[in-house]
Specification:
The protein is α+β, with helices and mostly antiparallel strands and 282 residues long. The protein has a single domain, classed as Dihydrodipicolinate Reductase, domain 2 (2-Layer Sandwich), CATH 3.30.360.10. A hairpin with a 2-residue loop joins strand 3 and strand 4. The relative contact order is 0.21. The mean pLDDT is 96.
């Protein structure tokens, strides 16, 4: 996709809308300012109680749905509402669970704030511990990404609403002089060691700003806030974490080659077979 966008001089904006949200930009500026001291850990998370899937029977697709096209290159299977709109993301054949659904948005700002591209290594644990309803992506997962001098941790729980840092969703930069905690409503900085609020900003999501940025870049031909390559790098974090959880071991990643080091089983999971007649362009 990156190659196609560059060769054809196209403007491609991903739906990681937080890149165009004003208080996310100022949070990144604060994280990079040095005021937090040495940042040794970043964390991102989402927790909450999800309802189980319905366990309903297979049936015919709704009228007007081209189900074969909806499946695309994924394996053929009978239509079931549990695997259709919205809920498709909880199945490996169609989506990447909570990691690809929510983590990509929050980790994208962490990556931006820390000004890094790819982790050197990733480890992850988790599984389906509560929502035994037919899904095959984890309802519980923790992943750790290793970088020189700091680590990043992702956590999701889809069956427990107890928050982290009083927030059910968010991310944080932990520094030697202070901690910056961010969510969709704004951010606060807590000093060390007294944990007093020393800076803050309120805010809200602004999807319209993301659309405007795209349209302006179509006109100006400038790079959009969430260019396809920017999105690819953050998406890669999520896919690496998913593969590490499925294999149950720590994986080391060669960013230049875009391959795992010394682990061909893991490398085989970097792609998947396509159902005929679909093919992946090379």
């Amino acid at each position: 996709m990156i190659r196609a966008a560059r060769q054809n001089k196209r403007v491609v904006q991903l739906g990681t809308q937080l890149r165009s949200t004003e208080h996310m930009k100022t949070a990144v500026e604060y994280a990079r300012s040095g005021k937090l001291g040495k940042i040794g850990l970043c964390r991102a998370w989402i927790v909450g109680k999800h309802s189980p899937l319905s366990h309903g029977p297979d049936k015919n697709p709704p009228k007007g749905v081209d189900y074969n096209m909806w499946l695309g290159p994924a394996p053929r299977r009978r239509f079931n509402p549990d695997c259709f709109h919205v809920n498709w993301r909880w199945f490996k054949d169609y989506g990447t669970g909570q990691f690809g659904g929510r983590a990509v948005h929050l980790l994208d700002i962490v990556r931006w704030g820390m000004n890094v591209d790819y982790p050197k290594a990733v480890a992850s644990t988790g599984g389906i511990f509560h929502l035994h309803d037919g899904r095959d992506t984890p309802d519980t997962q923790v992943a750790t990404f290793d970088f020189p001098g700091f680590s990043v941790v992702w956590e999701h729980r889809m069956w427990s609403s107890h928050p982290i840092g009083n927030r059910g969703l968010g991310f944080a930069f932990y520094g030697s002089e202070g901690t910056l905690v961010v969510d969709y409503g704004g951010w606060k900085v807590y000093s060390e060691p007294k944990r007093e609020v020393v800076a803050d900003q309120t805010g809200s999501l602004n999807h319209g700003a993301h659309v405007r940025n795209f349209l302006e870049c179509v006109k100006s031909r400038k790079m959009p806030n969430a260019d396809v390559e920017t999105g690819y790098r953050t998406t890669s974090w999520c896919l690496l974490g998913i593969i590490a959880q499925r294999l149950g071991r720590k994986l080391h990643f060669d960013a230049r080659r875009q391959r795992f080091i010394g682990d061909e089983q893991a490398n085989r999971l970097l792609s998947r077979p396509y159902r005929s007649p679909w093919v992946l362009p090379v």
